[in-house]
Write a structure and sequence with these properties.
9-stranded mixed sheet; 9 helices; mainly beta; single chain; 51 strands; 7-stranded mixed sheet; about 900 residues
Length: about 900
């Protein structure tokens, strides 16, 4: 290269701070860091690094912007497996995962996911191929209004008060959790009144009054800050219910939100304990009113035999677990409430809920609100509260999914809504002004305002209360897929489907079925040829929300794909189904978002071969984009009268056929049921409950020891669960169906731990469990953790070739004092030269500079100013790795130039006791 001048060194440059200060609040962000590079074939992507020493090694990802504290679980993934759940730092941008949690997984194809949404890559709305969805259509016409509107205020005035009791200690949490609540009740109501309890989700815990941006997830709140009153965000909903005669209470759970990062279940058991602690107090106050707080004494006496639980986000998973624990007690060591159950939960309302365990309570009615523009729990995994109950128990409880087009996650809570909240709040569906979302950006035809969304949410909460607690069947069409709307919900477009109630025999692709003319596909599978929906599809499906394993057995759908009409897709179960007593056949079918007018003929055949065409259905896709979970099933019904006229034996229906009548298209069948109006009595049967525990042991220095994964099977009866055993090295799972009963020891997972004297990370041997039939699962994940007890090898840096002519390659060797069983990562930093001339960015290979610093040579500057902090991996079982600096030859006469290198800690500070080495480059002779 030819340059007019050289760069001289006149002073020693100070090291730039590379890491943010954890103590800084969200509003005071640390300086931006440069991408971090690694000098192995397993190079980490920008924003990733490995820090710490020995067993304290961590995989760290730092976001370019703050990630608000939310309900979806932030997860680190590599390839097709989940590495683990990292802990968020106080800066809201840095996430750390102990490498022991990732076992020995190769750090390839690293991704950060939350609720199915990728956090470490921008959303892509730039449709460029046929797989992308077209622009969202304008909303279709509203469905007919329901004659009874539960969103209308009732006749009672309301009275509001608060109570604060002594905090409680919950298992696994070091700090006590508050017992605080706001009560809204009907004034002047006589007799006992049903009780509705609200539980908010995971949000920031503390704020600083007067500071519009400060919010933190600490607990207890630091000095000078106050708790965020998330529990006061449902006053509108409480006032509506109270006006209709309900006593309502909304409880605070900041103490759980500030500590649940370490809970294997995300805090579900703790939230259940907190809910039941409050219910126990209400039961006591009902029997001894004089002991109640003033806010409770001014309310009518609560009828604890009629309880509705309402949970938002992680609060939804918490009230689901509370319903489970009230019927099937948790192991005492895990539970924060061990008293008697003096209440009866008649139903739950779950708003944008999480369900990490995918363990819904099949025998308690539920209504799950799915916000179409949820930017937090964006995979809408709450659909599992419907789909996951099928075939598990009696099927008499109604489970409804309420899809609310244009609603986000936060605005159901006024304390999470900008302009209404006391503390900092935000729209969780982030908006990019340069690439606006056609469905969910504010101001689009489909996006709801905060007031519209909250009003619609209150209306459907009241509908569930009226049906589940009040038994008013006139509001059932608002929840069960009949296709009616509540006028009080305003312009909100709300769609529903359901399972259970008076639906009879169901045709489920999950079971033993034969499919012709279509494809039986898997909800979760890394193979695109097997999966129902390709990973590259425009958007996602709530029906296919991911779980803990890379694939799942027995979770399926039927995919139809046609280029011309007329070819029937036929589904034949292993045994004929009975549709006797049903009035209609109800199907749950979805088509790609933004498509309209897909027509399907529906026919059935009985065991004698008689066939009847029941009718034709038309299904439209939901408004959707790359960022929405809009592949969601519509409930379609056809009368069975044609089958009766044709003389079919409806007690022995052999097969179902769907025949496309549209020119071309795709559709997915989730299930089909015999349907009749009304609801059925719900009685929870005695079932076995499975909880997986965790055992932590030392690996030892020699020999092999055998341990068993701790498993608790309690309750009564016999059921089936599917047990997945995760390979600690690959993350891949093997599964088997297991019959369980209390005391049987059927889930027996032995784990062998081999002792050695070589350093490695802790090894987790994990098991996850899901209920299949006549069982419930509490703690779904556990296993055996073998702790490493060997010291980490010492790393040294020595020169190999530290003096070269221009165009040569400087090299140094990193050496370990002994081999390790895992890859050891060590950072090397380029320091400023203290004497003589320093190499510049134009003296080294430009591709090397881009690979290791993410920078271009121009403008020319000192090499130490190029943010060269390189993480070098020494592969497992070896003791050395090379660090090289390739130089380039130029035609400028110049003095010798040098580069200085040092081993550093994870904050880029040179390690004490290790020499700083120098490499020198001279002109070619």
């Amino acid at each position: 290269m030819i340059r007019a001048r050289r760069i001289g060194v006149t002073a020693v440059a100070a090291l730039a701070a590379l890491a943010g200060t954890p103590e800084l609040a969200h509003a005071r962000q640390p300086a931006e860091t440069r991408p971090l590079a690694t000098a192995t074939d397993n190079a980490l992507p920008p924003g990733w690094r490995v820090t710490g020493e020995g067993s304290a090694r961590e995989l760290v990802w730092r976001s370019a912007t703050r990630v608000p504290m939310g309900d979806a679980r932030v997860e680190f993934h590599a390839a097709n497996r989940m590495l683990g759940v990292p802990k968020a730092a106080k800066d809201g941008r840095t996430f750390r995962l102990a490498l022991e949690d990732a076992a020995d997984a190769p750090l390839k194809d690293l991704r950060v996911l939350a609720g199915g949404r990728r956090l470490d890559a921008p959303a892509d709305n730039s449709a460029t191929d046929g797989a992308r969805s077209p622009a969202a259509p304008r909303p279709s016409a509203q469905v007919p209004a329901n004659p009874v509107d539960p969103g209308k205020p009732g006749a009672y005035r309301t009275v509001t008060g608060e109570y604060a009791l002594d905090p409680v200690k919950l298992p696994g949490f070091s700090a006590p959790v508050e017992m605080e609540a706001v009560v809204v009740a009907p004034a002047g109501a006589t007799g006992k009144r049903p009780l509705a309890l609200f539980l908010h989700g995971r949000h920031s815990t503390c704020f600083k009054p007067g500071d519009a941006e400060y919010a933190t997830g600490e607990w207890p709140c630091p000095a000078g800050t106050e708790p965020i009153p998330s529990h006061k965000g449902y006053l509108q909903d409480q006032e509506l219910l109270a006006s209709q005669g309900y006593v309502t209470v909304s409880i605070s759970a900041n103490g759980i939100n500030g500590q649940d990062f370490a809970a294997e279940d995300g805090g579900a058991q703790a939230r259940s304990s907190l809910v039941r602690q409050h219910l126990a107090r209400w039961a006591g106050w009902a029997s001894r009113p004089s002991t109640a707080p003033a806010a409770v004494r001014t309310a009518p006496k609560a009828d604890l035999s009629r309880v509705l639980l309402v949970g938002h986000s992680r609060g939804g998973e918490g009230v689901n677990r509370a319903a489970m624990d009230s019927l099937y007690p948790a192991p005492a060591a895990l539970d924060g409430y061990r008293g008697p159950v003096r209440w009866k939960i008649r139903g739950t309302v779950l708003i944008g809920p999480t369900i990490f365990g995918q363990n819904p309570v099949a025998d308690v009615p539920s209504a799950t609100i799915l916000p179409g523009c949820d930017g937090d729990v964006s995979d809408l995994q709450g659909e599992v509260y419907v789909d996951g109950t099928r075939g598990v128990s009696k099927g008499s409880a109604l489970h409804s999914a309420v899809y609310m087009v244009g609603a986000n996650h936060n605005f159901f809570n006024s304390e999470w809504t900008p302009g209404k909240a006391e503390a900092p709040a935000w729209d969780d569906f982030w908006d990019d002004e340069e690439q606006r979302d056609p469905v969910c950006s504010p101001g689009t035809a489909t996006r709801l305002t905060a007031d519209q969304q909250h009003q619609a949410g209150a209306t459907y909460i009241a509908a569930a209360a009226r049906l589940f607690v009040g038994g008013d069947d006139r509001v059932r069409p608002l929840l069960d897929g009949t296709g009616r709307r509540a006028p009080s919900a305003g312009p909100a477009r709300v769609l529903t489907h359901a399972v259970g109630a008076r639906r009879g025999a169901g045709l489920l692709p999950d079971g033993p079925v034969t499919v012709t003319g279509a494809r039986l596909c898997s909800a979760i599978d890394p193979d695109p040829a097997v999966a129902c929906l390709d990973r590259e599809a425009a958007g996602s499906s709530p029906h296919f929300a991911g779980w803990e394993t890379e694939r799942e057995t027995g979770r399926r759908a039927v995919e139809l794909k046609w280029s011309a009409p007329g070819t029937a897709a036929r589904v034949t179960p292993a045994a004929p189904l009975s549709l006797s007593g049903a009035e209609e056949l109800a199907l749950r079918v979805f088509v790609p978002p933004n498509t309209t007018g897909t027509r399907l003929d529906v026919s059935v055949t009985d065991s004698s071969g008689r066939r009847a065409r029941l009718g034709q259905v038309t299904v439209d896709g939901l408004p959707g984009s790359e960022r929405t979970a809009s592949y969601w099933a519509r409930e379609l019904r056809v009368p069975l009268t044609a089958a009766t006229r044709a003389g079919l034996d409806l007690k022995h229906v052999k097969s179902l056929a769907l025949t496309p009548r549209s020119p071309a298209g795709r559709a997915w069948l989730m299930d089909a049921w015999g349907w009749a109006p009304g609801t059925a009595p719900v009685r929870a049967p005695a079932l076995p409950r499975v909880d997986i525990g965790r055992l932590t042991v030392k690996e030892g220095d020699s020999g092999t020891r055998s341990y068993r994964v701790p498993v608790s099977v309690s309750g009564k009866g016999t059921g089936q669960v599917r047990v997945h055993v995760l390979d600690p090295d690959t993350g891949l799972s093997t599964d088997r169906l297991v019959t369980v009963r209390p005391g049987s020891g059927a889930i027996d997972v032995p784990v062998e731990v081999k002792g050695d004297t070589r350093f490695a990370y802790d090894a987790q041997h994990d098991v996850v469990v899901k209920a299949v039939r006549n069982a419930v699962v509490g703690s779904h994940r556990g296993g055996v953790t073998a702790e490493n007890d060997d010291p980490e090898p010492v790393v040294s840096l020595t020169p190999v070739t530290d003096r070269v002519t221009e165009g040569g390659t400087l090299s140094w060797r990193l050496s370990l004092s002994e081999p390790a069983d895992v890859e050891i990562w060590q950072p090397v930093r380029v320091l400023p030269v203290t004497e003589g001339a320093e190499l510049s960015t134009k003296d080294v290979d430009p591709q090397w500079l881009m690979d290791y610093a993410g920078e271009l040579p121009d403008p020319e500057r000192l090499l130490s100013q190029a943010s060269l902090w390189v993480w070098t991996g020494i592969p497992a079982g070896t003791t050395t790795a090379e660090f090289v600096v390739p130089t380039v030859k130029d035609q400028v006469a110049e003095p010798a130039e040098s580069v200085r290198l040092a081993l550093t800690d994870d904050e880029a500070e040179p390690l004490p006791g290790h020499p700083v080495l120098t490499g020198t480059v001279v002109d070619a002779p």
